[in-house]
Amino acid sequence: MSDKAIITCAITGVLTDPRQHPVPVTPEQMAREARAAFAAGAAVMHVHFRQQAAGRGHLPSWEPDVAVTIMQAIRDACPDVILNETTGVTGPDFSGPLACLRAVRPEIAACNAGSLNYLKVRSDGAWAWPPLLFDNAVDKVKTFLDVMAETGTLPEFECFDTGIVRCVAMYARNGMFQGRPRYNFVMGVESGMPADPDLLPILTRLIVPGSPWQVTAIGRGEIWPLHRRAAELGGHLRSGLEDTFYLPDNRKVASNGDLVEQLARYARDAGRDVASPAEAREMLGLQHAVAA
User: What is the pLDDT of residues 243-267, one digit of tens each?
Assistant: First the structure.
């Protein structure tokens, strides 16, 4: 078990609408929220980019200039922070995420490690959104891994189901990437793994031995026992306004800082310290901070 917990803050996400929820969009808003999470103990910022035109902040942006501006604002607000860039996109054209990777050259980036039917059903049985395939075929995964190798970026393998967890070891054996994989168990998506703490001992048996892992828990109050168990088992921790708006008592929050404070509390309750950015870099084998 790692004696220090690396906390990642997922600042804003891709699905949340700023007209309905208090998610940051502009570089200034992103920097403010990153600063609150950083002060609460987050060493890593997982960053999505939104369109900046008026009334368009609910839509993702893959403009490299937008990505660079937002990442620089976060670096300025949180010196030495580790930046983790999203790459998730559906469909055959994923040139936008690749261009942003090359422009930003983040220390870490998400690598969605397998495909998932992304579904949710309302109480009346109707689809919450049109059924969506989050497609991540092997050739697509390899292209992202090749570009991450080019940019010196550590892939963080996003695993939405147990079969996807098992695929990561196959990618390693096939030579698709070098080094020890970093796993992110994404739990709570209705059509993926549930936010069930009892799954963690199974998942951790499926990873490449000795690899670091963390949990992304999506939901409301039911996710917090999963975070607590991850802390107890030596996993690293992630939360933020991308993943939830609710604390364990179901109080709604308006800031990432409140969510990170709760994760830090769970880490300390488990007898672990919260890793600084420098300690997180050493633990993950990152060479140095990317130059601003």
Answer: 999 999 999 999 999 999 999 999 9
271 domain-assigned: yes
3-state DSSP helix/strand/coil % of the chain, to nearest 5: 35, 20, 45
- In sequence order, the 6+-apart residues with CB closer than 8 A to the CB of 127 are 119, 120, 121
Q: For residue 292, is it within any domain? A: no
**φ and ψ at residue 27, rounded to 5 degrees:** -55, -40
Asked, for residue 270, whether it belongs to a domain, the answer is: yes
Exposed/middle/buried for residue 271 (C-beta within 10 Å: 0-12, 13-18, 19+): exposed
Q: What is the pLDDT of residues 188-203, one digit of tens each?
A: 999 999 999 999 999 9
- For residues 141 and 95, give the distance between their C-alpha atoms in angstroms, rounded to a whole number: 13
**32, 42, 74, 228, 237 from 28: Cα distances, Å:** 6, 18, 9, 32, 25
CATH of residue 261: 3.20.20.70
Q: Is residue 208 part of a domain?
A: yes
How many domains does one find in the chain?
Answer: 1
Handedness of CA 53, 92, 23, 36 (dihedral sign): negative
